Every structure is written in C-alpha cells, then in structure tokens.
Amino acid sequence: MQKVAIIGVGQTRFGNIIDKKAEELFAEAFLEAVNDVDKGIDISEIQEVYIGNSGVGGGQLGNFSSLMTDYVGLTGASALRIENACASSGFAMRAAILAVSSGVCDVALAGGEEKMNDTPRNRVRYWLGISGDMEWERLSGMTFAGVFALMAIRHMHEYGTKREHLAMVSVKNHKNGASNPKAHLQRETTLERALASPMIAYPLTLFDCCPISDGASAVIVCKADLAKKYTDTPVYVAGHGGSTDRLSVFQRDDVTSINSSVVAAKRAYKMASVKPEDIDVAEVHDCFTIAEIIAYEDLGFCPKGKGGKLLEEGQTEIGGKIPVNPSGGLKSKGHPVGATGTGQIYEIVNQLRGSVEKKNRQVSGAEIGLTHNTGGSGGTTVVHILKR
Amino acid sequence: MSIGILGYGVYIPQYRINKAEYVKAWGRFAAAGIEEKAVPGFDEDSVTMAVEASMNALDHAKVDASKLNAIYFASTSSPYAEKLVSSTIAMALGAPPRVSVADFTSSTMAGTSALLLSLDFVASGRGHFALIVASDCPYADPGDFLEHPLGAGAAAFVVGEGTPIATIEGSGCTTIEALGERFRKHGEKFIETLGIPAYTQAVIMNTVTSSVKALLNSTGRKPSDFNFVVLPQFDGRLPSGIARKIGFEETQFVPSMIVSQVGDAGAASPLIGLAKVLDEAKPGHKVLVTSYGAGASSDAVSINVNEEIMKRKGAVSSVKDYLADKKYIDYIYYLKIKKMI
Amino acid sequence: MAHVSIPSYWKTLPQRYCLIGMKCKNCGTINFPAREICISCKQKSEFEPKKLSGRGKIYSYTVIAAGSAPPEFSEQEKLAGSFPVAIVELEEGLRICAQITDYEEEDLKIEAEVEAVFRKIYEEDKVIRYGLKFRPVKKRKSLP
Fold this sequence. Notes:
- The complex is a heterotrimer.
- Chain A is an alpha/beta fold.
- Chain A has helices spanning 22-36, 64-71, 88-101, 121-128, 144-159, 163-178, 191-196, 227-230, 259-272, 289-298, 307-312, 329-332, 340-353; strands at residues 4-11, 48-52, 78-82, 107-114, 199-201, 204-205, 215-223, 235-244, 281-283, 368-375, 380-387.
- Chain A folds into 2 domains: 4-120 and 213-236, Peroxisomal Thiolase, Chain A, domain 1 (3-Layer(aba) Sandwich); 132-211 and 239-387, Thiolase/Chalcone synthase (Peroxisomal Thiolase, Chain A, domain 1, 3-Layer(aba) Sandwich), CATH 3.40.47.
- Chain A is built from 13 helices and 11 strands.
- Chain B is α/β, with parallel strands linked by helices.
- Chain B is globular and about 55 Å long.
- Chain C is mainly beta.
- In chain C, the strands form 2 sheets. In chain C, strands 6-5-4-7-8 form a 5-stranded antiparallel beta sheet. A 3-stranded antiparallel beta sheet of chain C has the order 2-1-3.
- The chains are: A alpha/beta, B alpha/beta, C mainly beta.
- Chains in contact: A-C, B-C.
- The A-C interface holds A 122-123, 125-127, 129-130, 133-143, 145-146, 149-151, 153-154, 157, 198-204, 248-251, 255 and C 1-4, 8, 12, 33, 39, 59-65, 68-74, 76, 82-83, 85-87, 95-99, 110, 121-122, 129, 131.
C-alpha cells in the first residue's frame, strides 16, 4: 500500500453565499487548493475525483460530478459524487486516499460542496430529514436536533451532564470561530446567552445547533513519495477508518455513544499506531453541542460519561490538553453538509503546517491531528489521522 | 348460549370547551342544556375514537379481536366520503382478514342501524361475533348556531353468542320523508339546516314518538316498564319534550343524559347514552334506546339487562371515568384543532 | 421531494397500526420493525408475528419546537405547536420511536409509564396516515 500525502487544501468561506452557484463555490475551493500546492501542479495530473454532496434542494442530483469536473477543467478524470449525509466529503477524502494508496493513481482530488440557503425553509426541512431514519424516526415527527436531543437527555440521565456543559461547547466553538475569517458565525457568545436562546428540541437551544451554511472545500492528495515534488510542507495521512451504525437511533443499544465513531476511530488509531492521548488537535463533528461531548468520549479523549468534566477543565480549548474544533467547528464555522468533511481536513492541515491565519487560533507545535466526520445521526462516520 | 350484547365500551376525547367560551366569542351559546362539550384532539378523528372505544368493548366482552366476524362503523363524520374506514379499525384492532365490514354513514341514526343489523348478522348464522362502533364528531360552520352543540365521542358494542350482559327484546322503526332539517350535501364539510325550528321539532317528535309506539305495540310494553330510556340528545332540552309527549318520567331518561357534558355526538350519542345507563343498570332492568336521523327515521330498541352484567362492572373505563378526565381549551384553540381557522 | 411512499407505508401497517413485532425463530429476539436478517443473531431467519402489549416506559424524549418539525408535520405544528417525541422501551424489551400525546409537561420524564394509542400521524396527498403514539398510562383500564 502506498502512503498518501496532502499537498494542497482550499475552502470557501462558509455561510450565506447567495451570489455563487454550486459549481462556482466548488471552483473557488478547488482553485484555492491548486494554488496552495506551493511548487505548482498541472490539474491534468488529477486522475480521480471524489466530491461529497448530499443534494440539499435538489438541483443537479444526477451526474453531479460531471457538472463539477466540467466547470473546473477536470473533464476526463474519473469522478464520483459521494453521499453519506453530513459525512459525504469525509468519505470522499477517504475514497481519494484509497485511490492513491491502492496505486490506481498518483494524484486524486477530494472535495465537497453544498448550497442550502437558496432553498425555501420548508423545502430545506424536507432535505435535512432525509439522512435520519425516514420510516420511523422522521415519521414520528423527529428532526436531527430531536435525535441528538434524545441522546442528550439520556446522557444527562446516565452521566449527570448538564445543559451548561452543552452551552460550554457552544461558547468555546464560537470563541474559536470568531477569529476564523472563513467561519459562518464569526462572533463570540456567553453561557447565559446560549442557555437563554430559543428551544429547538429540548434540551437543545438554537445555540446548541450548527447553522445551515453554503460552502465548498477541496483537498489534493498524492503518493507520499511524490509529495516533495509539489510542496515543501506536505501533511501525511497516518490513518483512516470508516464505519456504520444502525440508521435509526431508537434501535441502538446505547444512545449516549455513536458506535460508528468508536469503530472508525479504533481503525484509524490502529493504522496510524497512535493513541488518543497522542492527538494534538482535533476537528470533530459538533452538528449539535451534545455530539461534541459524545465525540470526546467515543474518540477516547476522556472516559465514557466524562465529556462534561473535560469541558469544565478547559482541556478542549486552544491551549488545553486536546484542543477540539479550533476552526469553530460546525457550530460556528458552519455546516454546508457535503463540504464539512474536507473542510475539517483543510483546518487540520493548516494547524499542522502552523499556517492558521490568526495566531490566537493556532495550536502551537501540533504534530498529529484528527478529523471526525459523522453522517446524519451517526449512521456513518469517518475518522482521519494526519501527521506533519 | 344466547345471542345478545356481550360487552361495550366508550371513548370520549379529553378536551372540553365550555359554554362561557362561546358566550365570549359569540355573545351567546345556542345549545340549550349543554354546559360543556367534548372535542377531539388535533390527532383524533371518528376513526381513532372508534378504535379506542372498540378496544374497551372487546376487553369488556372478553372477546379477542381475532374472533370477530363483522365490524360495523357508524358515523356522520367519517374522514373519507369514499373509502372504508371499518377496514382501518379492523386492522388496528387485529381482526382477521376474513372479517365482514361496513361503514354506516350519513345519518345520526347510523349507530342503532348498525347495532340492529349486527344482531341480525349473528342471528342469521353468518358469524359468531360482531363489533359495532358508533363514533362521531359532526362539523358545522362556526358562524352557524347549529355548530354550538356539536361534540364528540364513541361507543362500541360486541354482539354475539355467549352469555350476554344484555339482550334485545324487540325494536320498532318509523320512516317518513322529511326535507331541510339537518343535512350535508355531497362534497360539503359542514352540516346545515334551513332553520325552521318548529318544523324540525315537530318532525323529530313525531318520528321518535311513532317508533317508540311501534316498539311498545310489538312488545306489549308500556312506558313505565322501562327503568332507563335513552332519547335523542341533539341538545339538552329535546329529551324532556319527547318524554312528556310519550309519558316518560325524568327518573327514566335523565340517567342517560350525556349531552350536557359531551355535546351532540351525532351517531354515537344514542349508544353513549346506552353505555351510561348500562354502567348503572342492574340485572332485570329494562332499557329503551331511541335514535333519530334527519330525513327522517327513528329506531326504538328494547333491551333487557342480564345477570352477567354484574361480573363485568368496572372491567373497563366507564362513561363517568371518561367524563371526569378532561382538559379545558379556549375557543381559539377549539377552532384551530377542528381546523376551522 | 423526499418522503415515504404509500406502498412503503402500507407494507409496515401491521407495525404501525397494531405493533406486530417479528420474533426470530433462531434466537427469539423480537425485531421491530420487521427485518430479513435478525437484528440480534444476524442470521437469515424465519420470523413469526408477535403482538406487542403497547405498554412501556420512556427511555428518552425531546420536545420538537414549533417551526422545526419535518414538513409532514407542519400541519400539526400549526394546530398544536411544539410536540414531544420519545424513545419508548416496551415491556418486551425492545424500543420504538413515537410521539407522546394527551400529556402534561410533568409526564415527560425518563421511566414514565406510557401506553400505545391509535392516532392520526400525518396527511400527505390527502391520504390520512394513521399509526401509534403513546400517552401517559392513566386512561384506559384493561383487564388483567
């Protein structure tokens, strides 16, 4: 198996981007990734393309990858749209890694794109609900926030987690996102405001939920032994793992954990030969604040049930033992569903290179980073471990 | 083994709206003798109310749904003008696919029609057990005083072979052609009336009186033979008028009165009234049930209460239990959940 | 637009109307909804229908705020505002997801006893979709 390196990353600003069409958003991220390859790359060298997109709003649902490759001058490359809900581009990243490591190609592109804010509210609701269990959960009136609220209530019941802990995730991620020029919500918040904001699905308030964002991201990978030809600062893929869990949360044995995260992380740690305590910085899937707390536990950053305590101690803040979501996470940076996974890679690559635009967001000396990208309510999860 | 009523059950939704809410909204409450009325929740309709009443009846009769040979649904407010809902009820109860079903609609008399036909179904040997369920929540234009008395509720009876809690002694019927009292044209949601109260009153009085007379003649009974009499309860005043005309005392018909708390529950009213007196009846008691359907027809049914009823008392929730379990709503919420705004 | 088709809904009516679980003849686990490969022993097995009691306890719950429900429930939202949804653990040990109806706020807690009740779930293309919700145990007396 070939080792794989990341040689270029790009990401649009996440947020309300009305003036760009889907392919224009993708092109922006793609061109940034191409320009990020500091020694230059001829785009015709890209042989395999994987683009995450969950099809929110409809649009070019069929042959989406052809539209994207056509628009950015990649016609001729093999291309695939990858749909694993909110983990679409995380899995697109893994597909690109597999394409290179299997020896099928030398250079591959992973990316993601989603436009969500050009669709009427009620129709967005149609699309958001399609990634949870449609037949039983959705037809009980359940929403994504609702499913994570069920996890939160149970986590509170079993481990004494409090609404304040949820709000602490929000406050931390907003603080980080406030210094991220590409974040959707670039403003800080307070514990009081987070707790007092409108209820979305008890116990989750508006400040426990990520925003609905537009955006795109792109990552160029190549065989590790070719990396120095393209850049002086490659970041290496040390490990990766994907997994699935039961689609419907109500059929899972334990709703306070997402088993696909546990399994995907185990596989990634094993491949990278690292332990949770070796991770210097992580981008985790905080679609809702409770999801970040559960991710701490599932990824092994703390024992089961101690996610709240980890927050109280400030260990996941920048400067803590294991800084989580220095980008602001989905909560503040934003969550353009199909673009989130490669957006996390964009952040970790910059953290490991030490090239984060603002120093207060830079985790100093970070050598090993982790990304954790979950689809829907945990039906799919992919974890990547990157090394400088 | 004989044929008769093996068990019964009711359902009354928990929401209530009272007179004062109507007075606030309209200046008056045009429903004589009604203090409050039952309102189905936003997720209820005549079908869901029927399912719960039927479950109660099956439990009370100790008959498993898998034994049912017939299910008859009676209502003026089936959610479908065309499409069986007795089939929906059959599946929800767990009745076998070979069950025979029918929807009796378009008359507030549908409940007694279905009850009498279910007895014929069993008596003719077509099957051993039949369930009839009358469930209704009639609709009228909120701007029409006709809307004021309209309530909701359901009653179900299991009829079959066994040791009945009550048996049917006989029945009488009268049918005449009458126009323009209470009607709902095809495709309309709301019932209407031409609003000639004296005429409506006279047609109801004459038809019901005549069906009771037919019953008394055929059974050789006299009005005083009955311990309980259930009279049409479109409002709280009508029963006393009919009683006076035929010669029933207040002690006979007042125990069956549900309209003051449930409102006019259409095709279900006569059978909820019957359920209420059966809750109180002792072996040897006689009950007369009447119904009326605009257009116009009336059934009168004579029922003997048997020893078995004592064994079944308190087995399932009674009319009183349902009347006591209530939650008041205001007029705006009432209009919302009845989908009238 | 994304939705559950009528034939798909129809296929699950035994579950939706009267809680028919499918008992695996291999390991005895009740599968609800029905599956081809048993959720527990993961074997391709034979299944026999088993009617579930409809009684259980709230395992977890939430209240979906008005304005955020799936579009199938926007009509309900308009009529009744926010509504609770729960995972209910049935007496038989398995869990299902359903709305809680006819409730008071204090009824919403883990371990609260609930019972199944037949209700309208939603309407699409004029077709009413009935199914089960749960309500606090207090109403219908049943025989022992």
